[in-house]
Automatic annotation (TrEMBL):
Annotated catalysed reactions: L-aspartate(in) + succinate(out) = L-aspartate(out) + succinate(in); fumarate(in) + succinate(out) = fumarate(out) + succinate(in); (S)-malate(in) + succinate(out) = (S)-malate(out) + succinate(in)
UniProt keyword terms in alphabetical order: Cell inner membrane, Cell membrane, Membrane, Transmembrane, Transmembrane helix, Transport
Protein name, as recorded: C4-dicarboxylate transporter
Membrane topology recorded in Swiss-Prot or TrEMBL: Multi-pass membrane protein
GO CC terms of this entry: plasma membrane
InterPro entries: Anaer_Dcu_memb_transpt (IPR004668)
PANTHER family, sorted: ANAEROBIC C4-DICARBOXYLATE TRANSPORTER DCUB
Function: Responsible for the transport of C4-dicarboxylates.
Protein family membership: Belongs to the DcuA/DcuB transporter (TC 2.A.13.1) family.
Subcellular compartments: Cell inner membrane
Record bears the keyword Transmembrane helix: yes
MF terms in GO: C4-dicarboxylate transmembrane transporter activity
Length: 442
């Protein structure tokens, strides 16, 4: 029966991933109906806390976008890129990392990718180099961001194990920066310069690629509103980081029967701060709620929420019904070879196209198998497997924006531009995180 149930689980995931969008969540709902109503399996629990945190963060981001804050953030990043055009292979991934780290979502990279493609082309730098590593940098910045969905999912999973946000960040931030450096070096001199690329020179004769439409930059009052909204959001992020590092700063609301102070947990703190930030942006910077609801970030965020709701609930039901068999079958293997759990994170993230959903599903399994919390933190960077199949949104966007044709999906599908930097960054960041977690948390 376990094999049949696993087959249904994987089929739902594969069909949903293939259809894209909210299909990952909706098709998982079909599997959940089969599990609960036909197989009489326990329904498990949807990840309500994780979904609440994601919704709060997305709400703040959407209001910031409606006020022009997101455009201001991207324009600031653009200026940094344009000041160092010849060094774009090194500057672009770092700017991308910082942008995603601050925003907590990879979706802002879509506005940055055409800038990277244009600046690198005009500087004579092969766009494949900065574009490929920038896509990977977005993934590294995402798992390091204290407000990303995947980070809050890990914080929630480890909440009862005395491993907090500060512990995770002091391991993951340096580890992902090491991974970013290794990934950048892996592509820094990849391929021929544009002036020597015969394929590009042939395309030049056929394509008018020098004229590109650009959006009107923010100016005057609109720019001030955008800057203010961006400042409110970034201050909120800083506040979350501070109370994560110094938990004694979190509010206390009474005490329990034993006299132990009742302190707000990190998940609730994130939700309260993000909703408060959204409210301030609404009132102070004339952010339109209607525009926020129609914005790209809100739409993308709702897709993420529905997908995580469906697939993680389906996984929770499967695990609840087969917990004893699963743990008995693989606990000894995981305990003696913890790298296999890292492989599981990597492979499932490929199938789910979601680091957050992967953590929601696998983190409880790893903890149930007896993996120490510090080891879970060390293996965490292995969750960045989205690049492996060239079907992820950021990968496809980078290929589309590179009009020189240097960023490509290879003849054999897997030999694409993102494989080398992706493997280099993920492998090196995971090894670094393992070493740091053992040293700092072990």
């Amino acid at each position: 029966m376990l094999v049949l149930e696993l087959g249904i689980l994987l089929t739902c995931i594969l069909l949903g991933a293939r259809r894209g969008g909210i299909a990952l969540g909706t098709i998982s709902g079909i599997g959940l109906v089969i599990f609960v109503f036909l197989f009489d399996m326990p329904p498990g629990q949807p990840p309500a806390v994780v979904l609440g945190m994601i919704l709060a963060v997305i709400t703040a981001l959407a209001m910031m976008e409606a006020a022009g804050g997101l455009q201001f953030l991207v324009e600031t990043a653009e200026k940094l890129l344009r000041r160092n055009p010849s060094r774009i292979t090194f500057v672009a991934p770092l700017v991308t990392y910082l942008l995603i780290f601050g925003a907590g979502t990879q979706h802002v990279i879509y506005s940055l990718l055409p800038v990277i493609a244009e600046v690198s082309r005009k500087a004579g730098v092969r766009p494949e180099r900065p574009l490929s590593i920038s896509v990977i940098a977005a993934q590294q910045g995402l798992i390091a961001s204290p407000i990303s969905a995947v980070s809050v999912a890990l914080v929630a999973a480890l909440a009862g194990f005395e491993v907090g946000l500060a512990d995770i960040m002091m391991v993951v931030i340096p580890a992902t920066l090491v991974g970013l450096a290794v990934g950048t070096l892996s592509v820094a001199w990849r391929g021929a310069p544009l002036a020597e690329d015969s394929d590009y020179q042939a395309r030049l004769k056929d394509l008018g690629i020098d004229t590109e439409a650009t959006a009107a930059p923010l100016a005057g009052k609109a720019r001030r509103r955008g800057a203010g909204a961006c400042a409110v959001f970034l201050v909120s992020v800083a506040l979350i980081v501070i109370i994560g590092i110094f938990p004694e700063l979190r509010p206390v609301h009474g005490a329990d029967s034993a006299g132990v102070p009742l302190q707000i947990d990190m998940a609730a703190a994130i939700m309260v701060i993000m909703l408060g930030a959204a409210g301030l942006v609404t009132l102070l910077f004339d952010a339109s709620p209607a525009r926020a609801m129609k914005g790209e970030l809100m739409r993308s965020g709702l897709v993420a929420i529905i997908s995580i709701l469906g697939v993680s609930w389906l996984g929770a039901s499967f695990f609840a019904a087969n917990e004893v068999q699963i743990i008995a079958a693989i606990s000894s293997v995981i305990e003696t070879s913890p790298w296999l759990f890292a492989l599981g994170l990597f492979v499932l993230s490929i199938l789910l196209f979601s680091q957050a959903a992967t953590i929601v599903i696998l983190a409880p399994i790893g903890l149930a198998l007896g993996l120490p919390p510090h080891l879970m933190v060390g293996l965490y960077p292995a969750v960045n497997g989205n690049f492996f199949l060239p079907t992820y949104g950021t990968v496809l966007a980078a290929v589309s924006f590179d009009r020189t044709g240097t960023t490509r999906i290879g003849k054999y599908v897997l030999n694409h531009s993102f494989m080398r930097p992706g493997l280099a960054a993920t492998f090196s960041s995971t090894l670094t995180a393992l070493a740091l977690s053992q040293w700092l948390l072990g």
